[in-house]
Amino acid sequence: MNVNRLLFKTHLLFQSLGRGEFLTRCKMIIEPKLEKIIRNRYPYNSQAKSFSELTAILYDIFTVKDVNPRLEEELVKVEAELGPRLEALYLREDLPWSARHNADPTLARLCYLLTRMLQPEIIVETGVAYGVTSFYLLSALMKNGRGILYSIDLPPLCKNSEAYVGILVPSSLRTQWRLMIGPSERLLPQVCAEVKCIDIFVHDSLHTYRHMMFEFSSVLSCLKGTYAVLADDIEGHGAWFDFTKRLGPQFQAVVKHSYKDGLCGIALSRSDKN
Questions:
Q1: What is this structure's pTM?
Q2: Residue 115: inside a domain, yes or no?
Q3: Is residue 184 part of a domain?
Q4: Full domain range(s) for residue 181
């Protein structure tokens, strides 16, 4: 990092003092480095499933067989719509952060399938980046014809970074979207107090043990009846294990990423009333 870029980032960091984000920003920088030293990777791999294995289980839980091909066809259409937008994004030379922050297709596809299967009223996600998972979630909500997505994101300290949060989401999908810029430590409790019940929660923000457990604990009382929880990049520690043990879902699994070396977790319960 050159001197000018370092000075600019330092300037942005101290600007965050006025927004009450300074300590959060410091933790975002320090915590991941500390975790690599003090925590071991949790041995989830032995139980990890492929995307196709998991979808077969989900179809058995939530749908009848003649619905399955239709959902697969829908996914193909969604990805065909997103593809050109991704290509145009990658061609830009002014991207404020690396495209590697985009969600792996496994997480994004699970977001779509679960939204179509559960027909949720309220979805909450933490971590947006350029908006891959938001695109899938909102596409499914539009297909459902109902539901609201609350998305919380604190973008990296870069020039014009806020303008790029969710940039992949077109205006046609934004009517069911509530995008909130700021730390989830402040905004997530506010959303939980407002909505009372969360049908789907997606964690894809800071993947440290402390932060993941904070987010999981924040939404715990809002998970009632039929719900699903998705969490990305769970392999670094045991937060997912500790959370699901406390949550006690009817079903939970660990799923391999399609393209990246990582895992995501899924937990769900289905009420007989639904």
A1: 0.89
A2: yes
A3: yes
A4: 50-269
